[in-house]
Specification:
242 residues; alpha+beta; Porin; 8-stranded antiparallel beta barrel; 1 helix
Length: 242
């Protein structure tokens, strides 16, 4: 082989080996730098985290008991009829039954806790009793009652404890051996209750009322009858506040 050809072949082989080693060194350096990058970045100063410091408190406020309202109620009523006449003598009729009706009123908030108001109600009742005394069949009954009352209560946000009193009106009827007479009796009423707000417009209540209508006089078949009526009622009601 000519000397020039040998020199050329040796030179090419040497250049190839040098370039191969340089390429391997470059690859190794790149891998090393890539591996060190995360740890180096972790050592760099980091920006302080930011937080949303905006605070919106939950809405607060007491339930407003003032204003007009209307609703209905269902309950149970106990009554006593005390009757006296010359044919029958004196006797008592005790009876009970359902009551149901409507009510409406207006509340005034005197202070955040003291609530005063007025209320009207009308109730249908199922009160009657029959008895035979000295051969006389006597039936006493009351088909409805009503009241106009003042209310005064103490409010604990969504709860109201109250007392109430006022005028009471009721139907009173006596029938003796087919002769009957009706009257509208006037009396007084007093009671107490507790009421709670279910929503901003709807309230529920449980209350007790006592009513006393005093003595009423009747003339049946030429005989005088006198009757006293008193009632006790426990009822549950719902009201819509306007």
């Amino acid at each position: 082989m000519p000397l020039m050809a040998i020199r050329t072949s040796f030179k090419c082989r040497l250049e190839y080996k040098v370039m191969k080693r340089l390429a391997c060194a470059a690859i190794a350096a790149t891998v090393s730098v890539a591996g060190l990058a995360p740890s180096y970045a972790a050592d760099l100063p980091q920006a302080a985290p930011t937080y949303d410091t905006t605070y919106e408190p939950a809405p607060s406020g007491r339930f407003d008991w003032s204003g007009a309202y209307a609703g209905g109620s269902l309950g149970w009523v106990w009554s006593g009829f005390d009757t006296t006449s010359s044919p029958t003598g004196s006797f008592d009729h005790d009876t009970n039954g359902f009551s149901g009706g409507v009510h409406g009123g207006y509340n005034f908030a005197i202070t955040p806790n003291i609530v005063a108001g007025v209320e009207l109600d009308f109730q249908m009742t199922d009160l009657y009793e029959n008895t035979v005394r000295n051969g006389v069949n006597v039936k006493t009954s009351s088909a409805w009652n009503s009241s106009a009352r003042a209310r005064l209560g103490y409010a604990m946000d969504r709860f109201l404890v109250y007392g109430t009193a006022g005028l009471a009106i009721a139907d009173l009827s006596i029938n003796a051996n087919g002769a009957s007479e009706d009257t509208t009796a006037l009396g007084w009423t007093a009671g107490a209750g507790v009421e709670g707000a279910i929503s901003n417009n709807l309230t529920a209540r449980v209350e007790y009322l006592y009513q006393d209508f005093g003595r009423e006089s009747f003339t049946l078949g030429g005989s005088k009858y006198r009757a006293d009526l008193d009632t006790s009622t426990v009822r549950f009601g719902l009201s819509y506040k306007f």
